[in-house]
Specification:
Layout lengths: L1 H16 L1 H4 L3 H44 L6 E2 L2 E8 L10 E8 L2 E9 L7 H14 L6 H23 L16 E8 L4 E7 L5 E3 L12 E3 L21 E5 L5 E5 L1 H4 L11 H9 L6 H16 L7 E8 L15 E2 L1
Antiparallel strand pairs: 1-2, 2-11, 3-4, 4-5, 5-6, 6-9, 7-8, 7-10, 9-12, 10-11
Length: about 350
């Protein structure tokens, strides 16, 4: 405040003490206007520089927060090659509402991919609640449904606390806190033998990219692993009593799974056409062996070209490739979904 105060004092002193400021001649008025214009311009520039410094600091804090919540994944987790990327539709904040994590546990490699309703700074709390709970419970819960139950509890607790913070005068826990808030979640578990199990709460199903060990007519093929209607997203409705786990069979060495949020397939071009994700994945899978980093580059390059720039929704992509020693496929366990 020192510089603005000095400028203001100089302008007032000039007006009160300078004889030229007391004259009514045209020249004197022009000089007086020039003095006050200079002072006003200096104050505006000073305030602008202060606001820019504060904005840069806020962006640094938001970036650091995003780095802690959505921390960079290691290139390999228990024999699985990993590559992930995301960007936010809110370019001012640089923080999105998409989330992912890959953790190796004694129960297998467990993966979460999620999408919070909305994006930007408002989604940080929900992302923190879901990821914080996931990182804790994946080591303790032996079965995938137990993990999902704990995520549901964490989400409900977060929504109740947020509702109380937004309406502190009530002093009561609302029955339906922040009813419009929800998060879609896809949980995967990849066992030591490559068996893949999944639970899906309103999220897009993954894709399978066939590896070099497949027959020539199957090698490089892309398969959408849809398995019926998913469970409801976490937040607006309670989960059903029974949580049917989808069993996909074994992920063979060289095969890869592609997980994504709906911002990928919902991206449109100037004619309103949706992004052809399956076509982009087929192009990426032509090069054998499938490289997770190459898949990311191909998909994002095609996506940005299709949308003519960053899409209007948050986008997150995660690729997992089985780099373990070869496990022979059992004829009774093809890579196809079975609900149990």
């Amino acid at each position: 405040m020192g510089l603005p105060t000095a400028w203001g004092a100089a302008a007032i002193t000039y007006k009160l003490a300078c004889p030229l400021a007391q004259e009514n001649a045209l020249g004197a008025r022009i000089v007086t206007c020039a003095v006050f214009f200079t002072v006003g311009t200096g104050l505006i520039l000073h305030v602008r520089r202060g606001l820019l410094r504060e904005l840069r600091q806020i962006r640094r804090v938001a970036g650091a927060t995003q780095g802690v919540l959505l921390r960079p994944l290691p290139p390999c987790v228990d024999g699985l090659g990993v590559a992930a990327a995301q960007f936010s539709a809110d370019r001012r904040a640089g923080v999105g509402g998409d989330l992912y994590e890959v953790i190796g546990t004694e129960h297998g490699v467990r993966v979460v991919m999620g999408d919070v309703r909305g994006h930007g700074l408002a989604a940080i709390g929900t992302v923190a609640a879901v990821l914080g709970s996931f990182r804790e419970v994946v080591h303790d819960e032996p079965e995938l449904p137990g993990v999902l139950r704990k995520l549901e509890r964490a989400m409900g607790r977060h929504l109740r606390e947020r509702a109380k913070a937004e309406h502190p005068s009530s002093g009561l826990d609302p029955d339906n806190p922040v009813a419009e808030e929800f998060v879609t979640v896809l949980l995967l578990e990849i066992g030591r033998d490559g068996e893949v199990r999944a639970l899906n709460c309103g999220h897009p199903w993954p894709y399978l990219l066939r590896g070099p060990g497949e027959p020539a007519d199957v090698r490089g093929r892309v398969e959408h692993l849809a398995a019926g209607d998913p469970l409801p997203p976490l937040g607006p409705f309670p989960l059903p009593a029974e949580l049917p786990v989808v069993r996909y069979g074994r992920l063979l060495p060289g095969e890869a799974l592609f997980l994504h949020t709906d911002g990928v397939e919902d991206a449109r071009d100037s004619h309103g056409r949706f992004f052809p994700l399956a076509t982009a994945l087929t192009e990426a899978a032509r090069t054998q062996p499938v490289s997770p980093q190459a898949v990311l580059r191909t998909v994002f390059t095609r996506l940005l070209g299709h949308a003519g720039g960053p899409p209007s929704d948050d986008v997150a992509v995660l690729v997992l490739r089985n780099d373990r020693a070869r496990v022979p496929r059992q004829q009774s366990e093809p890579m196809a979904h079975q609900v149990k």
